[in-house]
Specification:
The protein contains 1 helix and 10 strands, in the order αββββββββββ. The protein is mainly β. It has a single domain (about 20-140), classed as Immunoglobulin-like. Strands 1, 2, 3, 4, 5, 6, 7, 8, 9 and 10 form a 10-stranded mixed β-sheet that branches. It starts with a helix and ends in a 7-residue tail after the last strand.
């Protein structure tokens, strides 16, 4: 009987902890870059907002269009901006991190077919605290960056 009560209490505490963290991360203004047919890649952008008192790391991203998604950043190498794969994206406690063209982004690799304005793309983001976030991102055109 005591084991049953303790098990119930432990399970309830775990569920309450999970519920408290379930909405800690939100994605604001997510979108996927429009690309023409034949382009092997596209990218997803958004602002990740963390309402918890602990920092979290985005450690994985999946999408419905491609078999492979990588986290990328742009770095200056001898005056030339180069894209680099990174292991994770840090989201500060009670803060934001912005994924935007020319900076942090989710690179979607192995695209088959066009991704056109008005389409919607399902993405699943996984964080190091065990939280996952399912989002739907509309496809939008992005003007090329000028140098």
């Amino acid at each position: 009987m005591l084991k049953s009560i303790l098990l119930t209490a432990a399970t309830s505490a775990l569920l309450l902890t999970t519920a408290a963290h379930a909405d800690a991360i939100t994605a604001l203004d997510p979108f996927v870059r429009e690309v023409p047919p034949g382009s092997p890649t596209t990218a997803a952008f958004m602002t990740l907002h963390n309402t918890s008192d602990s920092p979290v790391r985005l450690i994985n991203a999946d999408n419905e269009l491609t078999a492979h998604t990588e986290m990328h950043n742009h770095v200056d190498v001898d005056g030339v901006m180069q894209m680099r794969q990174i292991e994770h994206i840090d989201v500060p406690a009670n803060g934001d991190v912005t994924l935007a063209p020319g900076g942090l982004h989710l690179m979607m690799i192995g695209l088959e077919g066009a991704v056109s304005e008005g389409d919607k793309v399902a993405l699943t983001l996984t964080f190091d605290n065990g939280e996952t976030l399912d989002i739907t991102a509309p496809v939008r055109p992005i003007m090329p960056m000028s140098h």
